Amino acid sequence: MDSSVLADYLRGREYAGEYVRNRESTTFHTSSIIMWELFYGALDRDAPSRTIETVAESLSWVEVVPLTFEDAAEAATVRDELYSNGTPIPVPDVLLAGAVRQAGGTVVTRDTDFERVPDLSVDLLAPER
Question: For 43-62, how does the pLDDT look when each residue is reduced to its tens digit (9 = 90+)?
Fold first, then answer.
């Protein structure tokens, strides 16, 4: 799962919670890179109730997967493909895309950037407005 959906889950956005509840038997994964984004976001906000600890506790149902050597190599390939096409995306997204593509998984996101990545399965969620 991408930080866009996980951050919305933490904010209590209904679409994110509903997505998870409707897939009760699914094991959700995210990258340690995405957890860094969420932890940094917790420290960077004016919400004293949101801390690294509360983020970790609230997302205890997510399996955090470290970035491997193979993931990093695939992410480098993704970055090269995107730059060659003139369609770069942010580095954390490149790292997640590489890890997910390497694993043969699907990125769950509300970020259309992932649709630029060749041969990447993307579940693009459209949150309520």
Answer: 876 666 788 999 999 999 99
